[in-house]
Amino acid sequence: MYVCTANDAMPAEIMIVEAMAQFAGGLVFESRGFFTGIDRCEVLRAVEPGDVVTIHVELEAEFGGTFRFSGSGSIDGVDVVRGRFYLSSAQA
């Protein structure tokens, strides 16, 4: 879950995509990995201070140390951002 505040250093939509990548990394890496790409990312509406965004990520595929995920963020059950992104293992 991500809570948007008025004091965030970056736009909320960028923070949400970063949060999705962090959650995804926690699913597949014991130590560290690298955010290597993003594809088909859509921001469906602005996220405003005070919004609570529920994040869902799903592993779609693995390609020899590179992992593809789909992710979405929703507010009160309504999608506000979605996309596909890639993480790579530091050992690959």
Task: List the topology elements.
Layout: E1 2-3, H1 12-28, E2 33-43, E3 52-63, E4 66-75, E5 78-89
Antiparallel strand pairs: 1-3, 2-5, 3-4, 4-5
Written description of the protein model:
This protein has 92 residues and is of the alpha+beta class. The chain has a single domain (2-89), classed as Roll (Thiol Ester Dehydrase, Chain A), CATH 3.10.129.10. It is 18% helix and 51% strand. The chain is built from one helix and five strands. The chain has a five-stranded antiparallel β-sheet. The radius of gyration is 13 Å and the shape is elongated. The mean pLDDT is 86.
Can you tag this structure with a few keywords?
single chain; about 90 residues; alpha+beta; Thiol Ester Dehydrase, Chain A; 5-stranded antiparallel β-sheet; 1 helix; 5 strands
Task: Please outline what is shown here.
With about 90 residues, the protein is α+β, with helices and mostly antiparallel strands.
Helical amount = 10-25%
Write down the overall geometry.
elongated
CATH structural fold name: Thiol Ester Dehydrase, Chain A
Order of helices and strands: EHEEEE
Rg (C-alpha, Å): 13 Å
Main β-sheet, spatial strand arrangement: 1-3-4-5-2
Distance between the termini: 29 Å
Largest sheet: 5 strands, antiparallel
Write down the CATH class: Alpha Beta
Structural class: alpha+beta
What is the CATH architecture annotation? Roll
Which residue ranges are poorly predicted, with pLDDT under 50 across at least 5 consecutive positions? Answer: none
- What number of structural domains do the residues give? 1
Portion in beta strands:
over 45%
Number of helices: 1
Mean pLDDT, nearest integer? Answer: 86
